[in-house]
Amino acid sequence: MTPLAEPVAGLAGALSSPFDLADASAYARWRERKLALRPAGVQDLIVDVADPFALSPTERNALLGRCARANMAVYRGPAAGADSSLPRALGRRVGLQRLDNHWLAEEDGISLIEVSQRSDGRGGFIPYTNRPIRWHTDGYYHPASQRIRAMILHCVRPAAEGGVNALLDHELVYIALRDADPALVAALMAPDAMTIPARVDDDGMARPAQTGPVFSLDDRDGALHMRYTARTRSIEWKRDEATRAAVSFIEHYLASEAAPVHRVRLESGMGIVANNVLHDRSGFTDDPARPRLLLRARYLDRVSPPATPDDEATWRTR
Fold this sequence. Notes:
Number of helices: 7
CATH superfamily of the domain at 38-167 and 264-318: Clavaminate synthase-like
Distance between the termini: 23 Å
């Protein structure tokens, strides 16, 4: 479970949960600590690593500490070739084992995020183009049994221009909603809040419709999960006033100066480790001789908690 959260009712040894709308005290304690430890800027998220294939204990703890406090970290290592074993090796060091077997990933489970020239359909999906991508969490179209809990995005080659990622801790979105009106959170926790319609291709049903909540809690550790897309096509929101108000709040919040968004343009050797936070991507222009290439690994696990979650010295000084 996240070190910033308290135990969830119903779990072994559980007492309370900050995400229980009936427990204002647990929420207040968690909220105070969460806001006190949030990073002031993207520089607070960066960890320099000598070899991402073999993190040192200090580097590993620095990444885990940032993920515990902000659900994300940015690592900066030496430029390396397009070795798809890198995100898998780094993932194992931070507790990520179960890769999502995405149908557009390579045989090893790693996706090559580039402007696609292939004839396998990749070019029909926006990550494989140079167009902007709106706010979303990965796998929002998956069933709960295939929930994407974490991801690694490693940069092999940046774009010539653009390709900036914006990152926003979903727990801070939860706080903004609950502080405004707990009824907004309740609406988004409804099991029928958001439906992604079925996807049909030339061979028939490629993916059935997926209905579920925006916010949910992990059955194993009580961590908060967010399932969201800012797309206006291929999405159906529950048709009631509370859901419409909650969706409108998120849209305005994401577009406002109040949202603590971190923006980073990954350079060769840099990468993001995150518990599937909200993210977007600006459009970009490629150098034809060195087109943008990122390696993406998506996991059914969350990043491991740090061995010493209260060691703020590492968080503040690295």
